[in-house]
Write a structure and sequence with these properties.
By secondary structure, the protein is an alpha+beta fold. 36% of the residues lie in helices and 14% in strands. Strands 4, 5, 6, 7, 8 and 10 form a six-stranded mixed β-sheet that branches. A four-stranded antiparallel β-sheet has the order 2-1-3-9. β5 and β6 form a beta hairpin. α6 packs antiparallel against α7 and α7 packs across α9. The termini are far apart.
């Protein structure tokens, strides 16, 4: 086990920077609830979205135990936990952050192609990409990718490298729930008029082309949750290119064609596109 001073000093440093921390026991999991808190019989501990009433001084309720209060860290019951702890976790949502947890090389490669650069931290199996902003946590949003923000915890593995950037809509779109199913219909492609064709200012013309190709591939490769995939893909494309004027009717038609090839109706495609634009304020 790690030394108590080392873990405690790290927790205090995190707290001083507004990052709620908590100890983890063997297995890298939170300490279990005390008898009085088992099954949330106490009402649960207040933290973020949890309106509970528990005032237990122990390290109970997993992520909700995370705190920035130095007096709590050094209390007798917490000191006992530090002596049994093996590492530290923090509550990203409580610090105004979102962690994109990438578990393997394929997930990292996807992030590098899809997400804006931000602060990164190496993990045992992959990387944590940390963004400024909060959202609902969700596991397995795609192969090898978990989202940790509100009502969740992430293991603290150091400050990382790079500069924190704002949470992109591309990440938010990963947790979009599936839209109501619609009856398959004609495969004929119908797209809304899109006035664009401007110069893409992000990097090079190839950046737009690669983004559209990846979007088409994502839709084409989907084997389930087609509605969710189509909407999430439209949202991702628009979040990157919806304001720069570089999208043309040809680009949109390629996306709609891919969606309708998977059985989506023209009406659903139009609705998904319109909803994505509305979500982004376009």
């Amino acid at each position: 086990m790690s030394s108590v001073p080392s873990l405690l000093d790290t927790a205090l440093a995190l707290a001083a920077n507004g990052v709620p921390a908590l100890p983890l026991r063997v297995g890298k999991v939170p300490f279990g609830n005390c008898p009085d808190c088992t099954g949330n019989a106490c009402g649960g501990r207040p933290n973020m979205k949890n309106p509970g009433t528990c005032r237990c001084p122990g390290v109970c309720h997993a992520w909700a135990a995370a705190t920035t209060d130095p007096a709590v860290f050094t209390s007798p019951v917490w000191m006992a936990a530090w002596r049994r702890a093996v590492c530290i976790a923090y509550h990203p949502g409580g610090a105004g952050l979102t962690v994109v947890d990438l578990d393997d090389a394929d997930a990292i490669a996807w992030a590098r192609e899809t997400l804006p650069a931000t602060r990164t931290v190496e993990t045992t199996r992959g990387e944590h990409w940390i963004y400024r902003g909060i959202m609902t946590s969700s596991n397995k949003v795609r192969p090898g990718v978990d989202i940790k923000s509100t009502m969740s915890y992430a293991r603290y593995l150091g400050p990382g490298t790079g500069t924190l950037t704002a949470l992109p809509d591309t990440v938010r779109a990963l947790t979009v729930k599936e839209l109501p199913a619609v009856r398959p219909a004609t495969r004929s492609v119908s797209v809304p008029a899109w006035s664009g064709g401007g110069q893409c200012p992000h990097r090079t013309p190839a950046f737009l082309e690669r983004g559209i190709a990846m979007a088409v591939q994502r839709i084409t490769a989907a084997r389930s949750a087609i509605h969710t995939t189509v909407y999430g893909t439209f949202l991702a494309v628009l979040s990157t290119h919806g304001r720069c004027g570089c999208l043309t009717d040809t680009h949109v038609a390629r996306l709609f064609t891919a969606a309708q090839t998977k059985g989506e109706t023209a009406r659903h495609c139009t609705e998904a596109w319109t909803n994505a634009r509305t979500t982004l304020g376009l």
